[in-house]
Amino acid sequence: MSDASINASTLREDEAGFGDYFALLKPRVMSLVVFTALVGLVAAPVPVNPMVGFCAILFIAIGGGASGALNMWWDADIDRVMRRTRGRPIPAGKIEPGEAMVLGLALSGLAVVMLGLATNPFAGLFLAFTIFFYVVIYTMWLKRATPQNIVIGGAAGAFPPVIGWIAATGDMAIEPWLMFALTFMWTPPHFWALALFMRSDYDDAGVPMLTVTHGRRVTRTHILVYTGLLAVLAVGAGFSDIGGPIYLVVSVVLNALFLRGAWRISRRDEDASESDNFAVERSFFRLSLLYLFLHFGAILIEAVLKPFGLGGW
């Protein structure tokens, strides 16, 4: 094979494809954004034109993806160090950081303007604030400055149901903030569980996660405390306008399992093998993914059934 053929083959392998640009938008995170925003939209007490609803969710999704691209642009240096993230498009050499920045900014502008036009200006402004909070407040500042990074920064991931509600109503209410609080309180134990079995990544990257700055024992205690507070909030929301008997049953079962998992983590045997302890932490982390999805799924079911007199109280 000639040198020219080898160089052409290498270039083709290094070129970014559609999948690389899609990965830049953090599709797994985007799926959570889309789902919780949809629940906020459907749970709102006003009818929404299906086309308007579709456009709202589409532009909220684009805004979430734009935040992911800007996050990867700024965090490219630490992404190269962490095992969990070194395969992302920028550290893998598929996409240049400047490309990610331009794409993120362009999509941010598109999402904000189009959401405001498709629904109402308040929704567009709130989406703009959410993108700013995630990129500037969390990514550029809190993430590398304080072990409370994920506690405060978690607000960014909790805003989508509020945006969905505002897109439908053009106004605020207590119910979307209950959904916000559910996600906000869920975020720390979810990410701290991940940090427990991925601690070396944060050590190597110099990110001051609680596991790095205060140690594993303190982190496990924090997980238990936050899980207890989350359980009170989640079950209590079952008696609000977004709750109902279906939600309440789901919440009681899930929180019993979640509290059991947090208790097991807090009581883990320091003399046990790392593999045994990591298994407990991974199990809790996986349960945390199911936890949020099923809670919002139950809110969605209650909202869908309510017009037929079957959902809610």
TrEMBL record:
InterPro entries per UniProt: Protohaem_IX_farnesylTrfase, UbiA_prenyltransferase, UbiA_prenylTrfase_CS, UbiA_sf
EC supergroup of this enzyme: transferase
TM annotation in the entry: 29-45, 51-74, 95-116, 122-142, 149-168, 174-197, 218-239, 245-263, 284-305
Compartments where found: Cell membrane
Claim: Transmembrane is one of the keywords in the record: yes
Keywords carried by this UniProt record: Cell membrane, Heme biosynthesis, Membrane, Transferase, Transmembrane, Transmembrane helix
Reaction(s) catalysed by this chain's protein: heme b + (2E,6E)-farnesyl diphosphate + H2O = Fe(II)-heme o + diphosphate
Pathway membership: Porphyrin-containing compound metabolism; heme O biosynthesis; heme O from protoheme: step 1/1
NCBIfam families reported for this sequence: cyoE_ctaB, PRK04375.1-2
Assembly description: Interacts with CtaA.
Function: Converts heme B (protoheme IX) to heme O by substitution of the vinyl group on carbon 2 of heme B porphyrin ring with a hydroxyethyl farnesyl side group.
Name listed for the protein in its UniProt record: Protoheme IX farnesyltransferase
Organism: Antarcticimicrobium sediminis
Gene: ctaB
